Amino acid sequence: MNPDIVKERQNATFNVEKLTNILDGSPEKTRRRREIESMVLNDPDFQEQDPNFLSRSERYDQAVRKSAQMILKLREFGISDPDEIYYYKNCVHPDRPEPLDLHLGMFLPTLLNQATPEQMDRFFTPAWNLQIIGTYAQTEMGHGWWRCSQRASCSATTPTVLPALTSEDWRPQATFDPATQEFVLNSPTISSIKWWPGGLGKTSNHAIVLAQLHTQGNCHGLHAFIVPIRDMDTHVPLPGIVVGDIGPKFGFSEVDNGFLKLENVRIPLDNMLMKYAKVEPDGTYVKPPSAKLTYGTMVFIRSMIVGQSALALAKSCTIAIRYSAVRHQSELKPGEPEPQILNFQTQQHKLFPVLATAYAFTFVGQYMKQTYNRISGDIHEGDYSGLPELHALSAGLKAFTTWAANGAIEVCRMSCGGHGYSRSSALPDIYVEFTPTCTYEGENTVMMLQTARYLLKSYSQARGGQQLQGSVSYLSRLQPQPVSAGVPPLNIQDLASLVQVYQLRAANLVELAATSIQQELQLRHSQEDAWNSSAIDLVRASDAGLLSVPQALQVSAHIKELLIQLRPNAVALVDAFDLNDKKLNSVLGRYDGNVYEHLFEWARHSPLNASEVPPALTIIVIIKHNQLIGSFFPRSTSLSTST
Ligand SMILES: CCCCC/C=C\C/C=C\C/C=C\C/C=C\C/C=C\CCC(=O)SCCNC(=O)CCNC(=O)[C@H](O)C(C)(C)COP(=O)(O)OP(=O)(O)OC[C@H]1O[C@@H](n2cnc3c(N)ncnc32)[C@H](O)[C@@H]1OP(=O)(O)O
Ligand SMILES: Cc1cc2nc3c(=O)[nH]c(=O)nc-3n(C[C@H](O)[C@H](O)[C@H](O)COP(=O)(O)OP(=O)(O)OC[C@H]3O[C@@H](n4cnc5c(N)ncnc54)[C@H](O)[C@@H]3O)c2cc1C
């Protein structure tokens, strides 16, 4: 054990195990989490080659092998609780998305939320047993977003063939054929090819495809269909299915994100997910109680991503803070030993806010999950009243937490200097695997605008005298203040006072956005144009701080004081996240702090070190010996060599 890190732990002023229990929810939950962890980390079937030294195809193959083992073991150990499955999976594939993510994270949950009992028997049971492997195909090459409700040019009363349809409307179509009781699916244009779905490229044999429903000559907007894409025995693509991998990406190397072109693919009537919307055998369309229910799975994953932001931050600051405790640089005073870099105020100022955010997001993630479970329970009982708030909260928190975490991971990487740039630190991988959360499940700006839409509606209800409940109740309680009213009193030591200032700022920003829309409406006369011209204010309204210059200076001084208070407990606070070394997979973030010897050891495994003279270098050796000069270079080229 590195002596610096030992001293850090000796200086801590609280019981780390108790804090771990609080983070987990209870001592029993900590025990069970560790039990699952050791099932995976001590299982030889999950041993792997360091992916850093593998090609993409090798990484995919290794991940598929581990995922298959994972399913067998989940069955063997009878693990069926979604939280436990999720935890087990995260130990099997630490930090890395894998080919079955979409199957587990979106295919199964979409069936649970939108399938009829008959469809549950036909699809969910075999999918649970991994006979059916599914993905969720919404995004297309030309479009990442869809309307929940029908477009003006795609409504129940608009015949499909009207020339009013624009090129934008040429999205994948599912047209009902009553003669055969089938839907015929087509991707009419290049831009309507499904693009991005995880596990689609090679792994899945089924996809939930979102397509425009056409029946009795009318278009009814976006609906979900279960489409078999590969033969269940041979895994070969079925007729009419053009499918494959979209190629290498920034990260996600283990995942076969794919493309899917549908060419007159026929599926039975009862392959449309019909828990809510229905098509009768004669083609009659039965509306769902809410068109927004089609988007339920995204609300689930967005809620889950809030917790993933916390985990990415916990990992990043564990690595950076432990490393900063054992790294020494630059004499502070001449002749004295070099200090731990964690003693530099600037280093603390980089890392301690990340640490605080990791804690805050952990609790926000738990709150989001409880809210999701509560409101989705109501929805299952037929009460849809909480859906708008759930959508606004999950969309806004997904965007806010992923943006914040995305920036903070990079702060952690840079705070580790050069070694942070090495893949041995794990920080580059954490970044590339985390950053697409800002884009997928709804691009963040678009999500912020969804939250703003809800805030503005709530604002106008509050101004109309309604007493609002839940997360927007502050809009009823607080009267937005004009700038001339000055800044509110603030006690920076008092949490309640800080929350009140945040709420006031939020209310002011919502009012600013509403005023902007009103002004733009007078200028532009169209609600849509006024909305777009106020979009910057709207995004700010969803991301609410209202301080005077002296108050800001007071905050700044208080932060310096807090850095000093936090310093003795920094290592213990990251230890409390209880991230096992094998899960963290970082040379810099090792629990024992023995960084340098393991860094050297890790580098020696680089494939470039497999031979002292890599084969490609023989050409240089030959050139050095002047044997090829005549054939490689024209006679006029003078090459001076010493040999
Ligand atoms: C069962 C066992 C489970 C075990 C689980 C265990 C382990 C899990 C394992 C793994 C998980 C790991 C990883 C996670 C897996 C996957 C993640 C990886 C990849 C990502 C996959 C994807 O990206 S899928 C594609 C996602 N795509 C999007 O998110 C597109 C975003 N677009 C939209 O949401 C919409 O197009 C829109 C909202 C931007 C615009 O829609 P539009 O209709 O035009 O909107 P408006 O006119 O503004 O609003 C209309 C109306 O609807 C309301 N609304 C909108 N969305 C929703 C919603 N989702 N819910 C409720 N309500 C909604 C909106 O507020 C408006 O309401 P009002 O009219 O009342 O104002
Ligand atoms: C790693 C990864 C995995 C994915 N997995 C899946 C999957 O499994 N299944 C699936 O269906 N999809 C998947 N996706 C696709 C993903 O859901 C989309 O990329 C995402 O929804 C964003 O859509 P887009 O790419 O069309 O971005 P665009 O909407 O084209 O965004 C581009 C820019 O335009 C801006 N913009 C767009 N609309 C508006 C607006 N209304 N107002 C203001 N600004 C706007 C955005 O803010 C952004 O700056 C995945 C993507 C990635 C990167």
Number of helical elements: 22
Which CATH class of one domain is shown? Answer: Mainly Beta
Radius of gyration: 28 Å
Overall pLDDT level: 90
CATH homology group of one domain: Butyryl-CoA Dehydrogenase, subunit A, domain 2
Strand content of the residues, in percent? Answer: 5-15%
Shape: globular
The CATH topology of one domain is given as Butyryl-CoA Dehydrogenase, subunit A, domain 2
User: Could you give a short account of the major beta sheet?
Assistant: 6 strands, mixed
Poorly predicted sequence stretches spanning 5 or more consecutive residues? 155-165, 636-643
> Span between N and C termini?
51 Å
Structure class:
alpha+beta
Proportion of residues in helical segments: 40-55%
Question: Ligands in the structure?
Answer: ligand LEA4RHUT, flavin-adenine dinucleotide
Level-2 CATH architecture of one domain: Beta Barrel
Q: What is the number of beta strands?
A: 11
Catalytic activity: octanoyl-CoA + O2 = (2E)-octenoyl-CoA + H2O2; (5Z,8Z,11Z,14Z,17Z)-eicosapentaenoyl-CoA + O2 = (2E,5Z,8Z,11Z,14Z,17Z)-eicosahexaenoyl-CoA + H2O2; decanoyl-CoA + O2 = (2E)-decenoyl-CoA + H2O2; dodecanoyl-CoA + O2 = (2E)-dodecenoyl-CoA + H2O2
Pathway: Lipid metabolism; peroxisomal fatty acid beta-oxidation
GO molecular function: acyl-CoA oxidase activity; FAD binding; fatty acid binding
Keywords: FAD, Fatty acid metabolism, Flavoprotein, Lipid metabolism, Oxidoreductase, Peroxisome
